[in-house]
From TrEMBL:
It holds the Pfam family DUF498. It comes from the Bacteria. InterPro entries: MTH938-like_sf, NDUFAF3/AAMDC. It comes from Mesorhizobium metallidurans STM 2683. This is Uncharacterized 12.7 kDa protein in helA 5'region.
Length: 129
């Protein structure tokens, strides 16, 4: 039997505030992650949207599978605020999720506050340098 490195999908099975962001990643729960994150009720997942500047409903499949447990989605769109495409907003609204795009820094801060208030919040955070 060959031994080697097993690459698993990045997943932290719990909810945790984001302690830091920048340099292309995030720090939370005494761990660090390079790349973007999807913070859901089921945990914090590594997330790589196909095109961070043109998000689609397909990028949010994991979130839509947990839609019953999420009321608010904060979308950290990078260094600058970018509006969400109409089709994505419609898909989220159809699932009963209110979406709020903002810069990644603002999304991290808002996520931490809403998480501390035990709100039904999720966050999609695009990594920034």
């Amino acid at each position: 039997m060959a031994k080697g490195i097993v690459i698993r999908e990045a997943h932290f099975p719990g909810r945790a505030p984001i302690e830091a962001y920048g340099s292309g990643g995030f720090r939370f729960a005494d761990m660090s992650h390079r790349g973007s994150l999807l913070c859901l009720p089921s945990g914090i997942h590594g997330w790589e949207p196909a095109d961070p500047e043109a998000l689609t409903a397909a990028d949010f499949e994991k979130l839509l599978n947990e839609a019953a447990r999420v009321e608010i989605l904060l979308v950290g769109t990078g260094k600058d605020l970018r509006p969400l495409p109409a089709a994505l907003r419609a898909a989220l609204k159809a699932a009963g999720i209110s979406s709020d795009p903002m810069s990644t820094g603002a999304a991290v801060r808002t996520y931490n506050v809403l998480l501390a208030e035990n709100r039904a919040v999720a966050a999609a955070l695009i990594a920034v340098d």
